[in-house]
Task: structure prediction
Amino acid sequence: MRTNTHILIVDDLRTPTPDFQVPAGCDVHVATSSDAALAHLDRICATGQTLSALYLDHDLGQTPDGRTLTIMPVVDFLVQQAFHTHAVPVDTIFVHTSNPVGRRNIMMALTTTRIGGAYRVIATDSAAAGLAYQQQTEHE
Result:
C-alpha cells in the first residue's frame, strides 16, 4: 500500500471496528453527516491530496423534526465536480449502504455517462468488505 493513504468513511452508525482492519499508516476520517463529508472533500481538493477510498452509506440519520438525512448532497457534489470542473481525486468509491433504493440512486448518479466514467464505483455489502477488496487490488 502506498504511503499517505487517505480514506474517508461517510456513515452515521458504522465506524472502523475490528472487522474493518485499517492498515498502519492510513489516515482515516469518519464523517457522520453530509456536511462533515463535504468539508473534508473540500480540504482534500484544496490541498491536492487524493483519497484512496471513499465509503458511502446512504441513510445518515434524521433531523429533530424527523426528516431523513442522506448522502445525496455528497453524491451531487461529486457529480457536479466531475461535470463542471474536474472529478474529486478519489481512487475508488465504495457504496456500502444496506438501503437498496439508496444504493441504486448513488450508483446511477456516479456511473452516468454524463460524467464520463470519472469515478470507479463499487457496491459492497459493508465497509469492511470494501476495504478487503481495496487491499487485495492494491497488491495485484
